[in-house]
Amino acid sequence: MIILGISGLYHDSAAALVVDGEIIAAAQEERFTRKKHDPSFPTCAAKYCLDEARIAPTDIDYIVFYDNPFLTLDRYMKNLLALGEKSEDLICAGFHPLFSKRLWIHNLVVQEIGLPPEAKAKFLVTKHHISHAASAFYPSPFAESVVITLDGVGEWTTLSIGIGKGNHLELKEEIRYPHSIGLLYSAFTYFCGFKVNSGDYKFMGLAPYGQPKYCNVLKENIIDIKEDGSFALNLEYFDYQKGRTMINEAKLSELFDGGRRMPESVITQREMDIAASVQLVTEEVILKIARHAKEAYGQGLDSLVMAGGVALNCVANGKLLKSGIFKNIWIQPAAGDAGGALGAALYVYYEMLGRERHVDGRHDSQKGSYLGPQYSGEEIKSFCGTHAYPYHEAKDIAETAASLLAEEKVVGLFCGRMEFGPRALGGRSILADPRSEYMQSRLNLKIKYRESFRPFAPSVLREDVSNYFELDQDSPYMLLCANVDAGHCVDFDLQSCLAKSDGDMLPVVNMKRSDIPAVTHVDYSARIQTVDGSYNSIYYDIIRDFKEKTGCPVIINTSFNVRGEPIVCTPEDAYRCFMRTEMDVLILENLVLYKEEQPEFCDVDDWRNEYELD
Fold first, then answer.
1. What is the architecture, at CATH level 2, of domain 377-599?
2. Four-residue CA torsion sign, 10, 15, 19, 22
3. Rg of the chain, C-alpha, whole Å
4. pTM for the full model?
5. What is the pLDDT of residues 94-136, one digit of tens each?
6. 525, 208 Cβ separation under 8 angstroms
7. I want to staple 318 with a disulfide (CB 3.0 to 4.6 A). Which of 470, 481, 612, 614 is the partner?
């Protein structure tokens, strides 16, 4: 039974292939087209999935789209009716993408997948939040669980609560558009001068620098939160429902001491405090929703699964785990719209076709989320040879990488299959030594070309995680935050440092906060990836060898890309990123390339023109 799941035409398009219930391949379109958050039909991603399984389009049994365009049309038309004479902007913004493509998705599938008339594939659609829920429940290690999905909006739904048991999945409650915690978060991301979708991580990373002084302002004027976690937004402060920008800037300016911060301008204490306040309100909603879900539907259930873009908020996830409302939490690593492609395919297999589901209670079926393309040693040698790029063959690539990291070299690692989802997990990663207090700012300013305050994630050996962090469970997908263990921390007065910094955040970033300062955020938190070697033994060996050399079982892991660019997919992508930055070494499987040995790279000065830097 071969099922191809498709997400697309909104943002983060993707394709996923499920064969007899096994996840064979999944990838985002952006990795192939090099357009960040590419919303176009995932033609390249679908082709990759079929190539990975060595099957033809005529072999597919079902093709499933992750969203019901008729329900989206229903929302669009009712929104127009509600706006009346003020609907012109919404018509201009929404008419073409809805009526030219989304309603004709079945025709687009035939055209882009290349289905001949004799193809047997049946075309189906699932509801948006069912796709999210299925992407969280079916790959999880739990036979039964509560399911929560949270995002901006999908059709009408912005948040849902459901139950998964065996192969059956049912949504019980929902919050509907235009009331959305995801859109609230995105609106303030925009208000603080960051780009919606790609800037939400920045907004979350900025929050620990601030004080939540605007919490009461938010709850008294903008969001009414009930005890069960349900909420209503005061729509006077937003313009997204009118098809305009996210916010009513004039109204928000009255509450937040001025207008929207312009992109690339100086970040002030006000933006830090707004970020801290919105983050705290978001956490309050998530915790109350989880508590309500447990009380209403989770009696006897200790497990929770989550998906939707808001489920990528690892700070909230960490606090949810710490709350103890649920003993076990599993979050889909591709929690945003990309993961909907996988969820749609799994929902058809288990719910619609009624196939039996097997779990062992411990291991998920996501395969470490290493579901993308892989390149053989011969392919990589051919690439380097064709372009005359000097390289060295390493007999022990893990030992070589660990030695380089111990020398404080910044290493680009291209090894094994590409990850599915927004996090690099050791397949397409930039690695560095976390013990240097200057490494965070160096990576941000000279490698990633982004704001100096952005934190980096630690990859830690699973067996050592509780020795370094206040966490003692698996976190393989970098979706949980926890504090660095107090025994490794150094006293650090953030507010005093900020007061003395005169608006320059770099000295604050460079101040030592622990003995692994480059992965310790200013509130002593870290977004943790545990590594046990189950699906990426080389990455495990690198960290193990680094521990043997330094005594430290932790390394920095950040995605192999620069600002504005998707994570690298091919050896060519990796080499270009390597040469455009101040990275020291590139590892392509077992080949090691040193920067000083490489020929002059012709487009070093022009790369920024290719990408929109947000």
1. Alpha-Beta Complex (3.90)
2. negative
3. 23
4. 0.94
5. 888 888 889 999 999 999 999 988 888 899 999 999 999 999 9
6. yes
7. 481
